[in-house]
Amino acid sequence: MEQNRWRKSSRSGGNGQCVEVRDRGARVDVRDSKAPATGMLSFGPAAWSAFTGSLKTDSTRP
To answer: Which of 22, 44, 61, 62 is the most buried (most CB within 10 A)?
Structure first.
């Protein structure tokens, strides 16, 4: 992930219901792509890795 650049998931469907992610090295930021000025959430590397890992292992969830 390129540092300090906001990006959307390659799996975004283009329906406006997506988030953007930015890697800042020690933190990973997430924001709503429709309303970027409303703020963001920031995660440490371990928390982000656990979150994305859970998505990959539980991809059958509706």
So the answer is: 22
Strand partners, 41: 30
Break the chain into its structural domains and give their ranges: 7-52
**Which tokens sit at 48?**
């982000």
Note the pLDDT tens digit of each residue in 2-18. 668 999 877 776 676 78
Q: Report the 3 state secondary structure along 21-56.
A: EEECCCCEEEEECCCHHHCCEEECHHHHHHHHHHHH
How much of the chain exceeds pLDDT 70, in percent?
Answer: 77
Q: What pTM value is reported for the model?
A: 0.73
